[in-house]
Structure formats: structure tokens, C-alpha cells
Amino acid sequence: MKKAVFPGSFDPLTLGHTDIIDRALPLFDEIILAIGTNSSKKYMFSLEERLHFLKETYKNEPKLRVETYKGLTVEFCKSQNAGFILRGLRNAQDLEFEKAIGQTNYKMAGIESVFLISSSGKSHISSTVVRDVIHHGGNYEFMVPDVVRKK
């Protein structure tokens, strides 16, 4: 069984995230959408809201499961018997950053990283940009799924 973990804070879930998730579905038997929690990080959306965003968006997709975790992603992967970490790449900076993490994860736990390049028209979308637009009262609706727009 090919099982992948797609880790993130999903603060909030964006169309960039859903692009990667939707395109990865045919590649794996199961994908765990794993919300990493960090008590020292300040989130715009509560953990409950972020869980709701993911569960509601993918309520009809049996190959997806939503979980939360603390600590190292590779340790969570091992606890879930997942052999892959799924990540999206928007640009060259993402590639360099994710490459180093992927190489480290493989050395630590033998877990492979699978990278999907953002679809055309989605590479400008990030949770950081969405949060900044929301914070300043701008229109963010074109960057997020319906469930986030309703907030």
C-alpha cells in the first residue's frame, strides 16, 4: 500500500494545497493530510477551523484522512506506516528548501519525498500571502476553497 503524508499548518487551506492534493490522489492508495502543531507558533485560524477546512473539503474522498501531529514529520510518518512525504513546489526557492529537508528525512528514516510542481496559475498562492491579504482586508477568495471563504 502506497501511503503518503502531506504535512502543513494549512493556516488556511488554499487552492495551492488542493491543487497538490487532487493531483496526488491517483499516485497513492492513501494520503494523510497532517496538520503539524507547534505551541510556539501563532496561527490565524484555530486547529478546529483548520481541521474543518480539510475534512469538509475532502469529505467525499475515501483515500484521504486528516490527522494532527507534533514533533518530527518523519516520526509521524513512521507511526502511520507511511513511506512518502508529499510536498508542493511553487518556485526555485521552494525546491532548494524542500530538497534539504527531503534529503535529511531520507537519511533519518528512509522516507522518500515526492514533489509536485504547482499547476499553472497557482504558484503565487501561499497561506502566508492569504493571511496577509485577510489581515489587510483584501479579497482573498480567489485563493481558497469555498469552506474557507465562508469564514
TrEMBL record:
UniProt main location, coarse: cytoplasm
Pathway assigned to this chain's UniProt record: Cofactor biosynthesis; coenzyme A biosynthesis; CoA from (R)-pantothenate: step 4/5
Residues given in the record as substrate binding sites: 9, 41, 73, 87
InterPro entries registered for this protein in UniProt: Cyt_trans-like, PPAT, Rossmann-like_a/b/a_fold
Superkingdom to which the source organism belongs: Bacteria
Keyword Ribonucleoprotein in annotation: no
EC code: 2.7.7.3
Keyword set, alphabetical order: ATP-binding, Coenzyme A biosynthesis, Cytoplasm, Magnesium, Nucleotide-binding, Nucleotidyltransferase, Transferase
Any one GO MF annotation of this record: pantetheine-phosphate adenylyltransferase activity
Annotated catalysed reactions: (R)-4'-phosphopantetheine + ATP + H(+) = 3'-dephospho-CoA + diphosphate
Domain Cytidyltransferase-like: 5-132
Site (Transition state stabilizer): residue numbering on this chain: 17
Subcellular location: Cytoplasm
Cofactors: Mg(2+)
Cross-referenced Gene3D superfamilies: HUPs (3.40.50.620)
Binding site for ATP: 9-10, 17, 88-90, 98, 122-128
HAMAP family: PPAT_bact
Described function: Reversibly transfers an adenylyl group from ATP to 4'-phosphopantetheine, yielding dephospho-CoA (dPCoA) and pyrophosphate.
Oligomer and partners: Homohexamer.
Similarity field: Belongs to the bacterial CoaD family.
Entry-linked NCBIfam families: coaD_prev_kdtB (TIGR01510), cyt_tran_rel (TIGR00125)
Protein name: Phosphopantetheine adenylyltransferase
Naturally occurring in which organism (per UniProt): Gramella jeungdoensis
